[in-house]
């Protein structure tokens, strides 16, 4: 739904759109081609989605803060807790889980059930997404501290 929303209303937000297309690639190959690997991917999805509600509220408030004073207050109130929560989940817990996932695959603990091409491509997509998330929140922390 996020991808469709951005394609319709924010078609120039290529980073967000590419992120969701890459996520679809990982889930599509897991479900329909490899038929394995869903547990780790679902854990990562849960870790990503638990920050989404706060992110969506803050983003929507940010879009309306210029014309709606209460939106500005919500935006300001949500920023610090959201950045802290996002940093913990996507900057610490997520990378630790991905590290364990990488060790699992590198040590061939999945056996032959997940081809090397699949888990390597998943790890590239996931690590890239995590790095982009860390850069994104770091940039927002800098903005927050300088204001």
UniProtKB/TrEMBL annotation:
Asked whether the keyword DNA-binding is assigned, the reply is yes
Q: Does the keyword DNA-binding apply?
A: yes
Give me the segments passing through the membrane.
15-34, 41-63, 83-104, 116-138
- List the PROSITE patterns: TLC
Q: How does it sit in the membrane?
A: Multi-pass membrane protein
What are the UniProt keywords, alphabetically? DNA-binding, Membrane, Transmembrane, Transmembrane helix
User: Entry's Pfam families?
Assistant: TRAM_LAG1_CLN8
Q: Which GO terms describe its molecular function?
A: DNA binding
Choose one Gene Ontology CC annotation of this protein and give it. Answer: membrane
Localization per Swiss-Prot or TrEMBL: Membrane
Q: Which residues form the TLC domain?
A: 1-147
Q: What is this protein called?
A: DNA-binding protein
């Amino acid at each position: 739904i996020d991808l469709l929303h951005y394609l319709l209303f924010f078609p120039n937000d290529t980073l967000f759109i590419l992120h969701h297309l890459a996520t679809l690639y990982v889930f599509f190959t897991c479900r329909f081609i490899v038929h394995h690997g869903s547990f780790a991917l679902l854990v990562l999805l849960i870790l990503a989605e638990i920050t989404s509600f706060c992110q969506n509220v803050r983003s929507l408030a940010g879009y309306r803060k210029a014309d709606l004073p209460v939106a500005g207050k919500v935006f300001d109130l949500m920023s610090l807790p959201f950045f802290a929560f996002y940093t913990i989940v996507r900057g610490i817990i997520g990378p630790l889980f991905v590290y364990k996932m990488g060790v699992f695959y590198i040590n061939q603990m999945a056996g032959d059930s997940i081809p090397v091409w699949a888990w390597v491509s998943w790890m590239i997509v996931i690590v890239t997404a995590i790095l982009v998330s860390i850069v994104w929140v770091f940039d927002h922390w800098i903005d927050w501290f300088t204001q």
